[in-house]
């Protein structure tokens, strides 16, 4: 049987979920959001792809080994945390500065974004590894 | 006042859906009731957001909508195919 309606809806909805995930990621620190929930939403978009298509097709679409995502994310998080030791301040100290960006105006650039990037990658990787492992053993 | 009454009515609707989830004779009834519970939850968050005069909860509505959609699609696929995630599509 041919579920063309579901596939068409998925092609429309997955970019929206991915955009919402990025919006949640950058909204963190001042508004509800952050790396964890953004990563969960990105994983939700890929889970929708996994449900509608199959594992082999999605692996061809997104040729990333999700286990590497976990390692890369942990490297980001630990590197940002340990980088503060170079400036002779305690572990996990973050720095920020107000910068005038050309399009966005006055923006606060924060090193917590790098830490959150690590959290994002770890959450996406772990969620997809767990779901693929459960889904494969049917 | 109106908002409180509407919250109470939405809670009563939620109780009805909960009854249908527990009692529902077939699996399709339970899936429909769960989907409707998600939508009612989004409505309740919207009413609370109006009640508290804040726009901080509007992300939550979108989040609940997306999660309810993905959950309903997963349940529907499970009912139709017997598996949620296929290794390889075979028709």
From TrEMBL, chain A:
Q: Enumerate the subcellular locations listed in this protein's record, separating them with semicolons.
A: Cell membrane
The highest taxon in the source lineage is Bacteria
- Looking at the UniProt entry, the stretches that span the membrane are 12-31, 37-56, 68-89, 109-131
Q: Which UniProt keywords apply?
A: Cell membrane, Membrane, Transmembrane, Transmembrane helix
Q: How does it sit in the membrane?
A: Multi-pass membrane protein
Q: Which GO terms describe its cellular component?
A: plasma membrane
Presence of the UniProt keyword Transmembrane helix in the record: yes
Q: Does this UniProt record's set of keywords contain Cell wall biogenesis/degradation?
A: no
UniProt cross-references to InterPro entries, sorted A to Z: CPA3_antiporter_subunitB, MnhB
Where is the Na+/H+ antiporter MnhB subunit-related protein domain positioned along the sequence? 5-128
* Family to which the UniProt record says this protein belongs: Belongs to the CPA3 antiporters (TC 2.A.63) subunit B family.
In terms of NCBIfam families, this protein maps to:
PRK12573.1
**What is the protein's given name?**
Multisubunit sodium/proton antiporter MrpB subunit
Q: Which organism is it from?
A: Paranoxybacillus vitaminiphilus
UniProtKB/TrEMBL annotation, chain B:
Query: Where in the cell does this protein reside?
Result: Cell membrane
Main subcellular localisation: membrane
The lineage's top-level taxon is Bacteria
- Which UniProt keywords are given for this protein, alphabetically ordered? Antiport, Cell membrane, Ion transport, Membrane, Transmembrane, Transmembrane helix, Transport
One cellular component (GO) term of this entry: plasma membrane
Question: What Pfam families does the annotation carry?
Answer: MrpF_PhaF
Q: Which residues cross the membrane?
A: 6-22, 34-52, 58-79
Q: How does it sit in the membrane?
A: Multi-pass membrane protein
> What InterPro entries does UniProt report for this protein, alphabetically?
MrpF/PhaF-like
Molecular-function GO terms, alphabetical: sodium:proton antiporter activity
Query: What protein family is recorded?
Result: Belongs to the CPA3 antiporters (TC 2.A.63) subunit F family.
NCBIfam families, per the entry: PRK12600.1 (NF009248)
Q: What is this protein called?
A: Multisubunit sodium/proton antiporter MrpF subunit
